């Protein structure tokens, strides 16, 4: 469509201050203090600390995460219909922060129960935590779509978000095992309790900081009528969203599957001794921490690269590079720790920016929905995206527990050749398959830079005329 200087200026407005970008990013650090703990340690905690059989844990992940995934669109609809002096989405960061912290801590409270009681307790507390996570993270994710009308500004905010997210993951991977050992001594149960109490309190403060430092600037079109049936139909007809849905599901599956068995891999396959380090880090802690650091570094470099390349193109190239690195791990000898660190550094460096790029695309998808259908359903779009993430999390957690059981894993025992093979496959080939699936989905994504600019300008003119 014709472009004029006035519309171009309107489309480029909406830059955010450093304080607001950072404050927005700290919300994902709060999320990841628990989310990354679950990704990395929860299966290990349930099998090796709490004493639940891996097949039972896998089935619990399937049931609880399936139930939780269905809650996301409901929360999105609720958030879209919320109206307060603080906006639609920000109030939930204030209201739900304390329930979020309490529910996260309760998972690790570890009361003295029998075998059946432990399964029931784990199921109930995990379900409550995921409900609290949904109630605060659907609005938080939706905030990305209304924090600025500018796609470039949202991409920059996404960069801050994922630097902070991976910073939270770095804190988890770097500090959880040392803190558990330091605070609990030989009592690993007490160590997890004290450690997660610290992270619970910190997550509450971080969410409140995000609430205090951010604003909502993008409003629904004037006269917009809420129609759930119509919104759902428009969502299904939104081709860019459908493609990102698949990409997000595959992405979460391969990341969580690999993180879930990392502790198992170094405990049973590669050895987890700390003889290489003069500090308190064992091999798995150093591996996970270096991975999070390289993901942060990759996101920090994105600002330089994104000005020169299209988001879609970058995401495709980086995703297939990550997949190739994951395949390589199957062929690296278990004793060659240095080569593992090098290959993992490249995998993490290419993985980090794709997360930020894809999340920035969701704001473009919300713009596309308003541009195409005349209705903006930011909360529903982001909540349905979280549904994809929860689905991927469900697949990864379920497969991890079931595959461990299928290959004959027995906690805290010397593993059979079959069990070692199963752990190795989940650390390399299986996540690589899902990473390739993500790359194929992104190849089909239709919104390149020129199309996004055209949509921004059209919406700016439309709103100015209204």
List the helices and strands and how they pair.
Layout: H1 5-12, H2 18-49, H3 54-80, H4 90-95, H5 97-106, H6 115-146, H7 151-184, H8 188-213, H9 228-237, H10 239-269, H11 283-306, H12 311-329, H13 337-373, H14 378-406, H15 417-427, H16 429-443, H17 449-465
Helix pairs in contact: 1-17, 2-6, 2-7, 2-8, 2-10, 3-6, 3-14, 5-6, 5-8, 6-14, 7-8, 7-11, 7-13, 10-13, 10-14, 10-15, 10-16, 11-13, 12-13, 12-16, 13-14, 13-17, 14-15
Summed up, what is this model?
By secondary structure, the chain is mainly alpha-helical.
Write down the domain tally.
1
Instruction: Report the mean per-residue pLDDT as an integer.
Output: 87
Q: Classify the secondary structure makeup into a structural class.
A: mainly alpha
Tally of DSSP helical segments: 17
Which superfamily, in CATH terms, is the homologous superfamily?
A: MFS general substrate transporter like domains
Radius of gyration using CA atoms only: 22 Å
- Total strands: 0
Large-scale geometry: globular
Q: Considering DSSP H and I runs of 4 or more, what fraction of the residues is helical?
A: over 70%
Strand content: under 5%
Low-confidence parts lasting 5 or more residues at pLDDT below 50?
A: 1-12, 275-279
Q: Report the major sheet.
A: none
N-to-C order of helices and strands: HHHHHHHHHHHHHHHHH
CATH topology: Growth Hormone, Chain: A
Which CATH C-level class is it?
Mainly Alpha
Could you tell me how far the N terminus lies from the C terminus, measured between alpha carbons in angstroms? 19 Å
What would CATH call the architecture? Up-down Bundle
